[in-house]
C-alpha cells in the first residue's frame, strides 16, 4: 500500500498476521529446524513478547540460553540480510545471527545480556561509547558500500535529498486532509520555504570530503549491548538503516541523550559524547570543522527518519497503525 492508495487491504495487516496461528506454526517450524541444525535444544515454550506494525519478536528458551527471533514489516525485511553481511565485515561490532531466512527477513540471534541502557551509569560515558564505537564501525564499512547495499539497504545521497523532499512534500500535500499522513497547505508552504536551507546543508556535507557509510537511523543506548569488559559494544536493530552521509547518525543519540539526562544539546556531557564520535573523522577534516557540519547533518537526519517511516507506513493499512505514528513521516519531513 502506498500513502495515496485506499486503506482497505487487510492482507498486509502484519500485527494480525503475526498473531495468527498459521504464521506462528510456520515460524515455529523454521525456528525448530534452524536451532536443531545449530545444535540448540529448545527447553520450554516459545513466547511472543512484542507485536508492533513494524516488527514482531519471539523468545525461545534453549539449553544455551535465550534466543530471539525477529521478523520485520516487509519494507524493512532487509535487516536480516544486512546483519548477516555486517557479521562478516565487522564481526566484533554486531550480533552474528544463528540463522537467517533472507526472503522472509527472519533472523535468529543469541541473547546478548544487558543493553548499555540497562547497564547505564550516571554521567553520560555510555553515550560516548555508543557514538565513538558506532563511528568506528562506520569507518570500517566505508570500503564495503557494494556489499552492504547488496543486502537491500536504501541509499540516499545528499545530492538527491532536496529533490526527494520536494517531491515527497507534493505527494503528501495531495492526500485528503482527513488522512493523518497528509501535509496541510500551510505546512507544505513552510516546508518548501525551508528547502533552500536543506540544499545548503546538503552542499556543505557533500563538500566535506567525509565518505558515505551506514546510517543506523535509530542509534541509542538501547540498541547496543554492553557485552564483556574490554570488548566493543555490539549494535543491533538495523531496520531503519540507510547508506548515506555518516554524520546524520548523531542526531538521534543526541536527542535521546538530552531526554535521558534532562540536558540541552550544549551540555558538557553531550558535547563530550559528540566529540568522541567526531574524532573518527578528524583524519579527513579538523574536529572543529566536522563539528560545524552537525547542524547540516541534523537536517538530513530528519529526512532519513522520514524515509524509514515511509517504508513502514507504506506497507500496512493505515487503520492498523496507532494514531500517534500515522503522521510520523510528514512530521519528520517538515523538520528538514
UniProtKB/TrEMBL annotation:
It comes from the Bacteria. Residues 77-248 form the Aminoglycoside phosphotransferase domain. This is Aminoglycoside phosphotransferase domain-containing protein.
Amino acid at each position: 500500500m502506498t500513502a495515496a492508495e485506499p486503506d482497505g487491504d487487510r492482507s498486509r495487516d502484519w500485527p494480525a498476521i503475526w498473531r495468527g496461528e498459521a504464521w506462528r506454526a510456520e515460524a515455529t517450524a523454521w525456528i525448530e529446524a534452524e536451532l536443531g541444525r545449530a545444535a540448540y535444544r529448545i527447553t520450554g515454550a516459545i513466547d511472543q513478547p512484542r507485536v508492533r506494525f513494524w516488527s514482531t519478536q519471539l523468545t525461545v528458551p534453549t539449553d544455551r540460553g535465550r534466543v530471539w527471533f525477529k521478523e520485520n514489516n516487509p519494507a524493512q525485511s532487509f535487516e536480516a540480510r544486512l546483519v548477516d553481511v555486517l557479521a562478516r565485515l565487522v564481526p566484533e561490532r554486531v550480533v552474528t545471527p544463528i540463522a537467517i531466512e533472507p526472503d522472509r527477513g527472519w533472523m535468529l540471534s543469541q541473547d546478548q545480556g544487558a543493553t548499555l541502557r540497562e547497564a547505564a551509569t550516571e554521567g553520560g560515558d555510555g553515550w560516548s561509547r555508543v557514538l565513538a564505537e558506532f563511528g568506528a564501525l562506520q569507518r570500517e564499512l566505508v570500503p564495503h558500500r557494494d556489499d552492504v547495499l547488496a543486502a537491500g539497504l536504501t541509499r540516499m545521497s545528499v545530492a538527491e535529498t532536496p529533490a526527494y523532499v520536494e517531491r515527497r512534500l507534493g505527494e503528501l500535500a495531495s492526500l485528503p486532509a482527513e488522512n493523518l499522513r497528509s501535509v496541510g497547505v500551510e505546512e507544505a508552504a513552510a516546508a518548501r520555504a525551508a528547502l533552500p536551507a536543506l540544499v545548503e546543508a546538503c552542499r556543505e556535507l557533500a563538500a566535506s570530503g567525509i565518505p558515505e557509510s551506514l546510517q543506523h537511523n535509530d542509534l541509542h543506548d538501547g540498541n547496543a549491548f554492553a557485552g564483556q569488559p574490554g570488548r566493543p559494544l555490539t549494535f543491533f536493530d538495523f531496520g531503519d538503516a540507510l547508506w548515506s552521509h555518516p554524520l546524520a547518525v548523531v542526531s538521534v543519540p543526541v536527542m535521546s541523550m538530552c531526554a535521558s539526562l534532562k540536558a540541552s544539546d550544549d551540555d558538557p556531557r553531550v558535547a563530550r559524547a559528540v566529540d568522541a564520535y567526531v574524532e573518527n573523522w578528524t583524519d579527513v577534516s579538523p574536529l572543529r570543522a566536522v563539528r560545524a557540519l552537525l547542524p547540516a547533518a541534523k537536517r538530513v537526519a530528519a529526512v532519513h527518519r522520514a524515509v524509514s517511516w515511509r517504508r513502514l507506513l507504506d506497507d500496512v493499512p493505515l487503520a492498523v497503525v496507532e494514531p500517534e505514528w500515522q503522521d510520523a513521516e510528514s512530521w519528520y519531513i517538515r523538520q528538514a
